[in-house]
């Protein structure tokens, strides 16, 4: 599963094309299963950056 979470390096398909952005985020459930707030925070922590990357890729202007 960690291979698909490309925080450290971009994935490349069998044609040599590099992915445009990180498109999945895995949260180690076993580290968070006893603390629902920790799980929630870990999941939600990545959203702002992912939305920003998506908007840049699609040329969507977002006001600061």
Task: Note down, in words, how this protein is organized.
Helices cover 39% and strands 0% of the residues. The N and C termini lie far apart (34 Å). The chain has helices at 29-32, 36-45, 47-57. With 64 residues, it is mainly α. The relative contact order is 0.14. It contains 3 helices and no strands. The radius of gyration is 14 Å and the shape is flat.
Helix content: 25-40%
Low-confidence stretches are none
Main sheet makeup: none
Question: How large a portion of the residues is in β-strands, by DSSP E?
Answer: under 5%
Please give the number of β-strands: 0
Tell me the distance between the termini.
34 Å
Q: Write the element-wise H/E pattern from the N-terminal end onward.
A: HHH
Average pLDDT, all residues? 84
What class, by secondary structure content? mainly alpha
Rg from alpha-carbon coordinates = 14 Å
Count up the helices.
3
- Large-scale geometry: flat
Q: Short description, anyone?
A:
The chain has 3 helices and no strands. It has 64 residues and is mostly helical.
């Amino acid at each position: 599963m960690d291979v698909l979470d490309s925080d450290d390096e971009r994935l490349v398909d069998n044609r040599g094309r590099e992915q445009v952005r990180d498109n999945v985020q895995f949260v180690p459930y076993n580290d968070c299963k006893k603390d629902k707030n920790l799980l929630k925070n870990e999941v939600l922590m990545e959203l702002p950056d992912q939305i920003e990357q998506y908007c840049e890729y699609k040329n969507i202007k977002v006001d600061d």
